Amino acid sequence: MSEKAIFAGGCFWCMIQPFDTQPGILSVTSGYTGGHVPNPTYEQVLSHTTGHTEAVEIEFDPEIMSYERLVEIYWQQTDPTDALGQFEDRGDNYRPVIFYTTDEQKEIAIQSRKALAESGRFDDPIVTKIQPAVTFYPAEDYHQDFYQKDPERYEDAHANRANFIKENW
């Protein structure tokens, strides 16, 4: 039986590949969540009027990939000290959020965030929010599997994130 995890950490183009390549991952879908407009489009989300953030919904086999491990991978893809976006992507639609789907996921995320804060890895406070999952809307087809469809643009979009990851993890 599979489970779902939803993570927002800046541009969803850059959030697919780190999860998609892991064992036990059944699918990774780019989309929008956390807002108040049904079925938002990419242009609407970019307008900062829907309340949505770009996110990925990960379907995984918990017998192969634990939620704890997914959260560890998530931390390594984001700047958990930046509430106003991620890397060159600025605005509320790029805010970092872990959206939990079960009480167990909530507890794991809270404990993981606490451990990261206590680790001393970052000088600034950890500001990533942990919120209950709400409706997830898949993004348009051209956003799905972007790192495979347009590897050159993906590398350009991912460059600052990759440098941050190398320096901090």
Structure, explained:
38% of the residues are buried. The protein has 169 residues and is α+β, with helices and mostly antiparallel strands. α4 links the parallel β6 and β7 (129-132). It has a single domain (3-160), classed as Peptide Methionine Sulfoxide Reductase, Chain A (2-Layer Sandwich). The mean pLDDT is 89. The chain contains six helices and eight strands, in the order βαβαβαβββαββαα. The strands form two sheets. The protein has a six-stranded mixed β-sheet with strand order 7-6-1-3-2-8, with helices on one face. It has helices at 12-20, 42-46, 67-75, 103-118, 146-149, 151-168; strands spanning 3-8, 25-33, 53-60, 85-86, 89-90, 97-100, 129-132, 136-138. It is an enzyme of class 1 (oxidoreductase). This is Peptide methionine sulfoxide reductase MsrA. Keywords: Oxidoreductase. Its EC number is 1.8.4.11.
Describe the structure concisely.
The chain has 169 residues and is an alpha+beta fold. The protein is 36% helix and 22% strand.
Task: Give the helix tally.
Answer: 6
List the helices and strands in order: EHEHEHEEEHEEHH
Biggest β-sheet: count, sense, barrel?
Answer: 6 strands, mixed
Shape: globular
Q: Count of DSSP E strands? A: 8
Low-confidence stretches: none
Secondary-structure arrangement, i.e. CATH architecture? 2-Layer Sandwich
How helix-rich are the residues, as a percent range?
Answer: 25-40%
Average pLDDT works out at: 89
Main CATH class: Alpha Beta
CATH-wise, what's the superfamily? Peptide methionine sulphoxide reductase MsrA
Derived from helix and strand composition plus strand pairing, the structural class reads: alpha+beta
**Termini separation (Å)?**
32 Å
